[in-house]
Here is the input.
Amino acid sequence: MAKLDAIIEELVTANRILATEGIVDSFGHVSVRHPQRKDRYLLSRARAPERIEADDIMEFTLEGDPVDARGRKPYLERFIHGALYEARPDVMAVVHNHSPSTIPFGITGKKMRPLLHMCASIGHQVPLWDSHDKFGDTALLVDTMAMGRDLAKRVGKGRTALMRGHGAVVAGQAIRQAIWIAIYLELNAKLQMQAMAMGKIKFLTNGEVDAIVSRQKSFSFNRAWENWCTRAGRVMQEID
Here is the structure.
């Protein structure tokens, strides 16, 4: 139970950090795979990330069914999380957000690629998932497992994907890594738009991306996490 309680607190902190750093507003969410049940995950009830407390965290099956709802209303788009955990045993945390600078890349066809060493974690290139391709006219919300699984296929073995007219999704091997990627995805999008206005961009090569990612270990994530925790008014935990 101590391990589970620590993970829940880490998840609360992750929500607060995403809000403080402007990656989410009243909408968006982050989840973590259950530490004792790989076929389940933890995600808050439907609430603004900045307001989430430990009691808001719910447990779900990979199909998106609440284990013990206790009257709490879940997020409609929880299927994003379950589908990624189902498809990727290596994924331990998932973020879905609407960070503003990523939106133009999802609707213009302009490819997002890493251009700053800190942003290498977004991958060689960020793929685009368009719900209309398979599901036609919808509200663009991933509100079924079928949509979630289709999105997971687009993410593939990568870490990120854009969602046309909607936002982005991030898959990480730990909560701190997933938050890192989400924050630097937004930064890369902002810098790329600025650079596009100036001229031709020399992006990071695939080899440079791989070399940088190989050096991004817990030390780097924890250094940033401590800073983000301070800004979000949260205490940094020691996590095994």
Remarks:
- The radius of gyration is 17 Å.
- Residues 175-196 form the longest helix (22 residues).
- The chain has a mean pLDDT of 96.
- DSSP finds eight helices and seven strands in the chain.
